[in-house]
Automatic annotation (TrEMBL), chain B:
Sample GO molecular function, one term: electron transfer activity
Protein name: Probable electron transfer flavoprotein subunit beta
Domain of life per record: Eukaryota
Pfam families, sorted: ETF
Source species: Cyberlindnera jadinii (strain ATCC 18201 / CBS 1600 / BCRC 20928 / JCM 3617 / NBRC 0987 / NRRL Y-1542) (Torula yeast)
Length: 315, 255
């Protein structure tokens, strides 16, 4: 068998999440075939020549794929898998990957293994459950194995090779469904996006007001070129928009540095950030549970500590 | 919209989101005895959205039917959903058996067909298994469009506009019925079920079925080999000043 890997691109630039999914695909040990869908796929395919160890690239430039509608991507992928001897299919667990993979599973009568963090062997994988509070090892007994990968758990494959893989075009049979893409509104913040930021500064109820959140958290984030996060309590209290919520029911982040300001460390918040590489906690309550997961803890009044820290990291 | 809406809302009973789950001694799963359970938060948002659609478009909605697969206690989350405004419900007793998303979707397909559902609203994922599968699978099995991770739902003429959360922002898709919607956190804030409404909900229909009432092969595709704690973080240190903090961060090359 061989492994089919779904690759997402923005124009001709391969997404970093897909580069980490290709790493997982290679760990399965079989030849890896990459598939790209939509207008511009061929130019993105040429970028894949910088990745070592693929066997070939499949493309379909049908414009029906341009907005990543799962109603079209899923049948195209499932047809490829049914008509060839692929033993595995791998996608990154991005918004697109999560939208598509289960639909492919339904079409092929396969239960996917979602959001894996480790390949134990070609049929056995580790994945987080209960928002990362437990790790389950599962063995798939399906004839074909469908996987999505958590991109924080697999390093991106380097773009250092100069291969010339064969590129094959294919034409899936697509049934038109009464769904249409209308528009998109991507956040154009000067700040890094929360889930991909290298540094995240998060605020909790300790900030006490929206004004304080704006006054203390955002300048520190700007000084560090960091993304901004918040606890559910801070969101519920209206300090920030809930798209910034980190936690079990919000976003899961794993930056290199996570600075928790005025955050007590409720379980549901820890679930969203405890895989961060270095955690800093600033809290006036030395008994706060956040200190149990923090690498560096500073017990103090955030309204004094944070402005000082902001000045000193700028220096 | 010319067709009347028959809304189906599948809901799941899970360990309460505020609790830290404990792994059982055998390392085969999560300890479930003596633990508080609640409706999965995303399912609660799905119920709320269905009720809001009904409140905003009274003449358009035929009924809201809620369904749950789970132990007998799952009837509690159905009663709560009825108290919030759902009209009728089905409990499918699965005892202590875990049912994988693919099999859940196969059962729900039969429930949807029986109820002549044309709009199915589900949570984007349940916070126990975190698979984020069932809605997309149900859409695939039914060959319906799917609008996942909804942050906003609007009905205009004969189409449903759904604003979806995607990586880096939002996008809007529109679809005719039938349609599957899965809910994200920002869609709404669920109401509480009042005591009088909980009393009234006891009179609303609750159909009781068992897994064997469905023609679905329930054998698991994924075998759980073990469940373990995530790698523990090494104990950290306390620093005494901002200067010390900045120095340590520089040592770690974190800034």
């Amino acid at each position: 068998g061989s492994t089919l890997a779904f690759v997402e691109a923005n124009g001709s630039e391969i997404s970093s999440a897909s580069l980490s999914a290709l790493n997982a695909a290679k760990q399965l040990g079989n030849p890896v075939v990459a598939v790209l869908l939509g207008s511009g796929s061929k130019s993105a395919a040429s970028q894949l020549n910088k990745v070592e160890g693929l066997s070939k690239i499949l493309v379909s430039e049908d414009s029906q794929f341009d907005h990543q509608l799962p109603e079209y991507i899923a049948p195209a992928i499932s047809q490829l898998i049914s008509n060839n001897d692929y033993s595995h299919f791998v996608t990154s667990a991005t918004a697109v990957g999560k939208n598509v993979l289960p639909r492919v599973g339904a079409l092929l009568d396969v239960q996917p293994v979602n959001d894996i963090i480790k390949v134990e062997d070609p049929t056995t994988f580790k994945r987080p459950i209960y928002a990362g509070n437990a790790i389950v090892t599962v063995k798939s007994n399906d004839a074909k194995i469908l996987l999505s990968t958590r991109s924080t758990a697999f390093e991106a494959v380097p773009l250092t090779a100069s291969e010339s893989y064969p590129v094959e075009e294919f034409t899936p049979t697509l049934e038109k469904l009464p769904v249409e893409w209308v528009s998109e509104n991507l956040v154009k913040s000067e700040r890094p996006e929360l889930t991909s930021a290298k540094i995240v500064v998060s605020g909790g109820r300790g900030l006490k007001s929206k004004e304080n959140f704006d006054k203390y958290i955002f300048p520190l984030a700007d000084a560090l070129h960091a993304g901004v996060g918040a606890t559910r309590a801070a969101v519920d209290a209206g300090y920030v928009d809930n798209s910034l919520q980190v936690g079990q029911t919000g976003k899961v982040v794993a930056p290199d540095l996570y600075i928790a300001v005025g955050i007590s460390g409720a379980i549901q918040h820890l679930a969203g950030m405890k895989d961060s590489k270095t955690i800093v906690a600033i809290n006036k309550d030395e008994e706060a549970p956040i200190f149990n997961v923090a690498d560096l803890g500073l017990v103090g009044d955030l309204f004094e500590v944070v402005p000082e820290l902001t000045e000193k990291v700028k220096a | 919209m010319s067709t009347k809406l028959n809304i189906l809302v599948p809901v799941k009973r899970v360990i309460d989101f505020a609790l830290k789950p404990r792994i059982n001694k055998a390392g085969t799963g999560i300890e479930k005895t003596g633990v508080k359970f609640s409706i999965n938060p995303f399912c609660d948002i799905a119920v709320e959205e269905a009720v809001r659609i009904k409140e905003a478009h009274k003449s358009l909605v035929n009924k809201i039917h809620v369904v749950s697969i789970g132990p007998t206690k799952a009837q509690d989350v159905l009663r709560q959903s009825l108290a919030k405004g759902a009209d009728s419900s089905t409990h499918i007793d699965s005892g202590e058996q875990e049912v994988e998303p693919l099999n859940v979707a196969k059962i729900l397909k039969q429930v949807a067909e029986k109820n002549e559902s044309n709009l199915i609203i589900l949570g984007k994922q349940s916070i126990d298994d975190d698979s984020n599968n069932t809605g997309q699978m149900l859409a695939g099995l039914l060959n319906w469009p799917q609008a996942t991770n909804a942050a906003k739902v609007e009905i205009k003429d004969d189409e449903v506009y759904v604003t979806r959360e995607i990586d880096g922002g939002e996008e809007t898709v529109k679809s005719k019925l039938p349609l599957i919607i899965t809910t994200d956190l920002r869609l709404n804030e669920p109401r509480f079920a009042s005591l009088p409404n909980m009393m009234k909900a006891k009179k609303k229909p609750l159909e009781k079925l068992k897994l064997k009432d469905f023609d679905v092969d329930l054998s698991a595709r994924l075998e759980v080999l073990k469940v373990e704690e995530p790698a523990a973080r090494e104990a950290g240190i306390k620093v005494g000043s901002v200067d010390e903090l900045v120095a340590k961060l520089k040592d770690l090359k974190a800034i």
